[in-house]
Amino acid sequence: MASWGEASQSRLIGKRITRLSGKDKVTGKAKYTYDINRPGLLYARILRSEVAHAVVLELDLSRAEELPGVHAVLPLTEAGRKLRYQGQEIAAVAAETDDIAKDALRLIYVDLEEQPFVVTEADAMAEGAPQIRDDWQGNRSNPGINEQGDVDAGFSEAAVTVEATYHTPVQTHVCLETHGHVAEWRGEDFLTVWASTQAVFGVRNDLSRRFELPANQVRVITEHMGGGFGSKFGPGVEGHTAAQLAKITKRPVKLMLTRKAEHLVAGNRPSMTQHVKAGATKDGRLIAYDMKGYGTGGISSGAGFQAPYVYHVENQRTERFNVATNAGNQRAMRAPGHPQGAFAMDSLMDELAEKLGMNPLEFRRINDSNEVRQAQYTLGAQEIGWHRRNNVPGSGTGIKKRGMGVGSGQWGGGGGRGTQARVTINPDGTVEAVTGTQDIGTGIRTAIAIIVAEEFGLEPTEIAVQIGDSGPGLPSGGSGGSQTTASVAPVIKTAAAAAKQKLFETVAPLLQTTVDDLRIGKGTIYVASDRTQTITWKQTTGLLGMESITESGNWDQELRQGGVAGTQFAEVEVDTQTGHVKVLKIVAVQDCGLAINRLTTESQINGGVIMGLGQTLLEERIMDPLTGRMLNANLEDYKVPGTYEIPEIKSIVFDTHRKVTGVGEPPCIPTLGAIANAVYNAIGVRIRELPITPDKVLTALAQKKA
Amino acid sequence: MSEKEKKQSTNISRRSFLKGVGTGTVAATVVPAILVGDAEKAEAQTDDTISTAQIQLAINEQKYTIEVEARTTLLSVLRDGIDTNGNSVDLTGAKLICDRGECGGCTVLVDGKPIYACMMLAMDAQGKQITTVEGIADGNTLHPVQEAFIKHDALMCGFCTPGFVVSSVALLNENKKPTLEEIKNGLSGNTCRCGTYPFIFDAVETAAQKMK
């Protein structure tokens, strides 16, 4: 049975290894799609709707076409069609320079007949609201209802109940490299696309269908990409447009979204509103849970969320639906449905615990059947100093009040089939590992090198890893669901093991020994029964003569495992005069399975915590109900965490077993509840609506006083 | 619709636009041109009278002669500029991320000071020494800041990294031994979305020690 071996025997796996791409990234040499310059490159831009809902009456591209330097103008809508949200595509231009493309957009004439619109959930659900989708009755989807146990009986057993409404607004991904492509045709039948994507093969397959080309006549390259967070799985309108413009002009075309468009049309995390009533028994058992909730994913559905979350409730009834609004559609965003669900559930847990007069940690212990998280509660409480928490919320003295809170999360991340990989040993001792996955920033390139280097007794820097290219014809899945490492690592491991076996088979007779008696040392191969027979890696591969060894791998299920638990503790300081919340410290205890690279795993945990912090305190897409437009579609008014917001973060890689599990998404989940509960513990007033901005804190404090 | 009528239809004032956007079925003619600028102006800007100038820039100790328009930014020259000999400048380390001087992705040194290259006109960079992230290392020898970024994994997707590296170098040139608060202050003009900040702070501390 395949295994990763014991920790004590690992030279590299589980250690802190610096990234292979580090040098290219710190010197500016790393080439992202945005950086691809091709001979004869044209620059493309898209004209987008500035209104939320309209019918196109006329579209005239002629003046834009006449502008010197413009090579093509492509309509992306036509008279009679509807535009249903701000940012929807009207037409695209390809020109000699980006400035000329910008100028040309201004020369496009479009006549629109505006239609009534709604951009907030409340407006969409109001009586007499305009119908947004032709395929729905009203602006609500059919509700999904789930019932377990007997809710009424549960409530009759409850000693305490809490009824509350929790809300999280729409959050946008804010990928620093906007969605974009560089497309280049060779004749009519071969398309190369550099894509800022988290799914190289997904983009290849989509483009092959779109342009009716055989899959092997489309090549997609993503050497580096500047963030995706779930929003970059397909080429989208912009990818199709780039390829179409390149086809028309017979020139390479670069089309990157503007920052504004990135906010408007490149996906977002849907909002969540839930009205929940829950009850617990006197001895602290969560006994009944009744939730009605909704969210908006803009013009699309998909606004689901987890409720209840993590903790066990015997009797529950949930009802949830989507609300359609005239806004850009949602896309998967880092742990879809989990952070918002966790915020509501962890807030609710604390509210129940308080009514019971119970420590919220103790209340969680009673209702959490997950053994890993139970251990994490102990460790996290120790690390944060849980005993220092205010027993009476808001009881601290002074203007700046401190508080502590806890939150929990769970995720899968066990990987899946569909990755093919090749590991090659060349006679000169060089090694190549090739597969069609992509590095979304989590460091899979380095993880692959670590696995191969461990198997061969080499250094990770000695492994040439080729990923982010569909050219070699070795497919791998998209980087979603925290699945990349658990999907790729087993295939790389088995490919490397097979190549090593082949190497041993070739050299054993030459060393006058058996395959079973050969071992890998550091940069060497030796005979186990006679250590005096040790030869270097290069001497060994030199024995291959003219022939390289190339082996493929398979997804061995024994090498991976899904299901991770996470817990975070937060300490905050709230300025009761300004309403400003400063997070002082987060302890993140994250179940990871086997962390191939401890250094990059810690980075991922830090990153998840910081994104969760942003969602809790800063981030919100603000729609103007009067104009139907997003008011903060930039990086100035849409706040993402910056240096001042960063607390001390203690990221604890909580290894629970020796099997690979993904960890990209889970660390962003427990942060919300932990911070929100810490704010409550500090000031004694609960804020049930994110983000917890100073205005909300001051309002809550004023209401408490009154 | 005649050309004249079309031109007239673009002359909707901001006020009449807002009037036409409320709820209720209002037939309003909305030309996006007015929302992004003035179409008349755009036309004037792009006719034959548009003026360009040949300028000389000193980037990473190399001289470039480039033809630019008045509106061309320094960032645009670094990334997309082509010199008078037809060679691409191709210094793509600095990135356009926010396009409004907010995120620091395009940070370069101008006479040793960190500036946002998206906010500086190329013409204004004449006569100054420009150092991009590509010019931070000494040949193959990395700058201590770069070494420390790699060591501490102060990068994930890496898209913001060039800006952070340049800002960190600028910070350490000014302040040899910054405290954590001073590091946060010095790098507050840069934004990372992957959340690498804690390791960036560690890296700057390590680099400071090494540069002592």
CATH homologous superfamily descriptor of the largest domain in chain A: Aldehyde oxidase/xanthine dehydrogenase, molybdopterin binding domain
The count of helical stretches of chain A stands at 17
Count up the domains of chain B: 3
What's the CATH topology name of the largest domain in chain B?
Ubiquitin-like (UB roll)
Give helix and strand order of chain B, one letter per element, not per position.
HHHHEEHEEEHHHH
Q: What structural category arises from helix and sheet content of chain B? A: alpha+beta
Let me know the average pLDDT of chain A. 97
By DSSP (H or I, 4+ residues per run), the number of helices of chain B equals: 9
Overall radius of gyration of chain A: 28 Å
Approximately how much helix is present in the residues of chain B?
Answer: 25-40%
Shape of chain A: globular
Q: What best-fitting shape of chain B do the alpha-carbon axes yield? A: elongated
Mean pLDDT of chain B: 84
Q: Poorly predicted ranges of chain A (pLDDT <50, ≥5 residues)?
A: none
What are the defining features of this structure?
heterodimer; A: 706 residues; alpha+beta; Aldehyde Oxidoreductase, domain 4; five-stranded mixed sheet; B: 212 residues; DNA polymerase, domain 1; 3 domains; 5 strands
Task: Characterise this structure.
The complex is a heterodimer of chains A (706) and B (212). Chain A is an alpha+beta fold. Chain A has 3 domains: 7-30 and 415-559, Aldehyde Oxidoreductase, domain 4; 33-115 and 179-256, Aldehyde Oxidoreductase, domain 4 (2-Layer Sandwich); 332-413 and 562-705, Aldehyde Oxidoreductase, domain 4 (2-Layer Sandwich), CATH 3.30.365.10. Chain A has a 7-stranded mixed β-sheet with strand order 3-5-1-13-10-11-12, sandwiched between helices. Chain A has a 5-stranded mixed β-sheet with strand order 7-17-16-15-8. In chain A, α15 links the parallel β27 and β28 (648-654). In chain A, α9 (338-356) packs parallel to α16 and α12 (444-456) runs parallel beside α13. The longest helix of chain A is centred in the last third of the chain and has 24 residues, at 484-507. Chain A is globular. The termini of chain A are far apart. The mean pLDDT of chain A is 97. Chain B has 212 residues and is of the alpha+beta class. Chain B folds into 3 domains: 3-46, no CATH class; 52-135, Ubiquitin-like (UB roll); 144-211, DNA polymerase, domain 1 (Orthogonal Bundle), CATH 1.10.150. Chain B has helices at 3-9, 14-19, 32-36, 39-46, 74-80, 144-151, 161-174, 180-186, 197-211; strands spanning 52-59, 62-69, 107-110, 113-116, 129-131. In chain B, β3 and β4 (113-116) form a beta hairpin. The N and C termini of chain B lie far apart (71 Å). Chains A and B meet through α1, β1, β2, α3 and β6 of A and α3, α4, α5, α6 and α7 of B.
